[in-house]
Amino acid sequence: MSGLDSISMRNLDEQALTTLARRLAAAVTRGGVMHLRGELGAGKTTFARALLGALGVGARIKSPTYSLIESYALPNLSVHHLDLYRIADPGELEWLGLDELAVEPSLIVVEWPEHAGRALPAPDLIVHLAHAGGARDVVLEPAGARGTLWLQSAGILDPVQAGKASR
Ligand code: ADP
Ligand code: MG
To answer: Is the pLDDT of residue 164 over 90?
Structure first.
C-alpha cells in the first residue's frame, strides 16, 4: 500500500489527528489533490474539517455526505471537499465536472475516492486512516513529487530521507 517515503503514525487521538491536518494545511495552499481513505468512522471528515479550517474556511464545514461536494472560495484558492460514499458507479460523477474542478489553484479533498474509479484527478497525497483501539493509525502516502513536497514543507518528511527514498 505504501511506498518507501510513506510516513506511518500510530495511535493518534483526535487532537493529534487534527494537529496533523492543520500542519499539512500550511503546505497545500497552492492546491492539489488529496485522497482520504479509510472505513466509516475512520476520521476522514475530522481530518478534512481540520485541514479546511486551518486553510481559512470560516464557514461551518459541513460533511458532504449528502451533497457529494462542498466548495469554498478562499482569496487565493478554491477548495472542494467531496464525499463519494453514496456513489455506486463512477458514471454518476459526470455531472460534477471533476476535470474543471482541477483547474488550479484548487485543492480537492476526497473521502471515498475508491468509489470514483478513474473519474477523479490523480492524488498528490493519499491519507490512509484506520481504527486503532480508541484512536487512529495514519499513513501518509505521497503519490507524486508534489505530495512529497507537501510532507517536506509540513516538516513531516525529512528532505534527506525523501531523496534516499526516491533513488
Ligand atoms: P469518517 O469521515 O471517516 O466516516 P469521522 O471523521 O466522521 O469519520 O469520524 C468518526 C468519529 O470518530 C467522530 O466521532 C470523530 O470525533 C471520531 N474521531 C476522529 N478522529 C479520531 C481519533 N484520531 N481518535 C478518536 N476518535 C476520532
Ligand atoms: Mg466522512
So the answer is: no
User: What spatial distance separates the first Cα and last Cα of the chain, rounded to whole Å?
Assistant: 19
* Residue 52, ligand 1, Cβ within 6 A: no
The single-letter code of the amino acid at 159 is: P
Domain extents for the chain?
7-166
Ligand nearest to the CA of 18: 1
* Ligand 1 atom closest to Cα of residue 48: 6
β-strand pairing of 32-37 with 135-142: unpaired
DSSP secondary structure letter of residue 122: P
* Closest ligand, as measured to the CA of 13: 1
Architecture of domain 7-166: 3-Layer(aba) Sandwich (3.40)
For ligand 1, the distance from its centroid to the CA atom of residue 136, given in whole angstroms, is 8
Cα–Cα distances (Å) from 150 to 6, 45, 114, 132, in that order, read: 12, 20, 22, 25
Asked if pLDDT for residue 113 goes beyond 60, the answer is yes
Q: Is the CB of 42 under 6 A from ligand 1?
A: yes
pLDDT of residue 85: 95
| pLDDT tens readout for residues 15-52 | 999 999 999 999 999 999 999 999 999 999 999 999 99
User: Ligand 1: distance of its center to the CA of 43 in Å?
Assistant: 4
